[in-house]
Amino acid sequence: MHPWDITVPARPGRLPGLAMAGFTGRASETVDLKVIPYPAVTLFMNFGDALVVDDAGGRREGGCGVLGLLPREVRARGQAIECLQVRLSPVLAHAVLGAGADLDGSVIALEDVWGRDAARVQEQLGAIGSWAERFAFAEAGLARRAQAGRAVDPEIAFIWSRMVTKHGRVRIEALAEQVDWSRKRLWARFRSQIGLTPKQAAQLVRFDHAAHRLAAGTSAALVAADSGYVDQSHLNREAVAFAGLTPTAVAAAPWLAVDAVAWAAPNYAS
Fold first, then answer.
1. CA atoms of 162 and 206, how far apart (whole Å)
2. What is the mean pLDDT of the chain?
3. How much is the pTM?
């Protein structure tokens, strides 16, 4: 049982690569969860008692913050939480945040990205009386930023989409050939616009697929065999590298317990 009431939009949004969920705390004690990496850039905006997110480097954010694609040793703590969480595909995040290589997984304040607009948006969202209205307001604002921002190269968007469609089981050299780019050019452009190397991105997408299968109760041996890992030891190394956990611990991670409700239809391909 997860410690929040979760609200999601009543219908799919019109902005490709966007997913949102509202969390309202109902736990009598402080919740302390280890964040599991996910192939999207995450924004969080607090309206009630702060959901504090911090990392091993000592960075801490309790108002509005951003998590990149590889949050390492990041924990989320709070009790009477009222928080909007927004997941942006890295393709969308590039336009909305100008993210790319600056979002390496550390916790950063949204103010560092949006300036004074971050506090203004948080205040406006906090004054809205319903989650449905908050979702609509947030989507409209993000759509404006996406339109005003700089889109990734079409080749990068295509490659990211192929990675997601194939659950990370792709050959980077073959993708470079498909877009008629050299391996060196692909590596440089992908890293600057997505924030990871193509290999890291494919591994993260594969790990996310594996993590959710583990959480659904599939055995580590079967997940390893079906997800493109050489063997179960390979899956174990990837789980430790990305989440700092064994596959058994990933399967039981409370952070993933909300996904069937909050993120039932992952939307990070676009």
1. 12
2. 89
3. 0.92
